[in-house]
Amino acid sequence: MTVDEGQIPFNRPYLTGRELSYIAEAHLNGQLSGDGVFTKNCQTWLESLGEGSSALLTHSCTAALEMSAILADIRPGDEVIMPSYTFVSTANAFVLRGAVPVFVDIRLDTLNINEKLIEREITKKTKAIIVVHYAGVACEMDFIMSLADSYGLLVIEDAAQACMSTYKGKKLGTIGHLGCFSFHETKNIISGEGGALMINSPNLLDRAEIIREKGTNRKKFIRGHVDKYTWTDIGSSFLPGEIIAAFLWAQMQEAETITTRRLNLWNEYEKLLAQTNQNYLTGNIPQDCQHNAHMYYVILKNGSIREKILNTLKNEGIQCVFHYVPLHSSPFGRSVTKRDYCLSITDYVSSNLIRLPLWIGLTKFQQEKIINTLLNEFTVNHKAMNLQFLEMVH
């Protein structure tokens, strides 16, 4: 089936060219169930991202988050602090263990958790702080790690969007006590579905291996440390199949090239939007951070016309999307927290953000079409766009 070149999809998965041959090689190796040669290759690559970090490949970032919740020894009634502006897995992983998510507002410049609002939410029930590096842009990790240390809390990085991004020279996912990556097809480095858990505190590694192996000490058996393996802890089947790892290994070998090409696309959007009327906001990259160009977004200064803009883009064959519905205002979020929140920046961004297509293979002509269509809509709706801007964004 051919792709309609007149259509510009939001995402198109990228192939390096080695994926299918590696999958065939995995089959020839005679091990498809996981933890084979390709899994080891991927884990070694991930461990090279951070000194002293250990990596365990998982079948999704959700799985890595669920492992993190077990490693954090989350019990019913415990509290975990996190942004409300995130995907449901960030909260679900801890709610499954009986925790109550405590939501904190985000910063308008990075859409990351506002680090200055965390401390006031810490109580005797708090067990962990979950940070989400939105769009591959780092949270203020020095501040957050220092705060967590002073209260004896774990920091878990939801780095689903942040593979290859850095904070002060350190790779995201390797700074907190635990880090979680996603290799879903919408991410920069992909395997269809897939993820990884980064263990950055060595004292958590032994248990992490047991949890990942369905609660057994099978890893010790394979290494010859025990003469048989048995059930020793809670756990589940968190391993990906070797076919997934084979696909992923091809992507990891081209990670630098993929990141560079995406950054070029991101910079082209910046160039096209430069010196236009400021009826929108774009993401800010702090000076000490290097992002991975996971996404490009604009935030309308007045979101009442967002649906109209999205429909116009759709009619022109351009697929743009928005997210998230904030967790604190979702039906299940309300039932879990039993608390009324006033998270003004989160609510504002959720109602006004538009994500633009960004994938390797997107042409300059297509980017120009996207931006021209967007700017034409800004001009048509000039009056609506210049309604009084909310005070909170200043």
Describe what this molecule looks like in 3D.
36% of the residues lie in helices and 14% in strands. The termini are far apart. It is α/β, with parallel strands linked by helices. It is globular and about 75 Å long. The protein has helices spanning 19-29, 37-47, 61-71, 88-95, 141-151, 205-212, 218-222, 242-253, 255-273, 306-315, 331-337, 344-352, 364-380, 382-385, and strands at 54-58, 79-83, 100-104, 126-132, 154-158, 166-167, 170-171, 178-182, 195-199, 280-282, 289-290, 296-300, 353-356. The longest helix has 19 residues, at 255-273. The protein is built from 14 helices and 13 strands.
Give the SSE map.
Layout: H1 19-29, H2 37-47, E1 54-58, H3 61-71, E2 79-83, H4 88-95, E3 100-104, E4 126-132, H5 141-151, E5 154-158, E6 166-167, E7 170-171, E8 178-182, E9 195-199, H6 205-212, H7 218-222, H8 242-253, H9 255-273, E10 280-282, E11 289-290, E12 296-300, H10 306-315, H11 331-337, H12 344-352, E13 353-356, H13 364-380, H14 382-385
Parallel strand pairs: 2-3, 2-4, 4-5, 5-8
Antiparallel strand pairs: 1-9, 6-7, 6-11, 8-9, 10-12, 12-13
Helix pairs in contact: 1-8, 2-8, 3-4, 3-6, 9-13
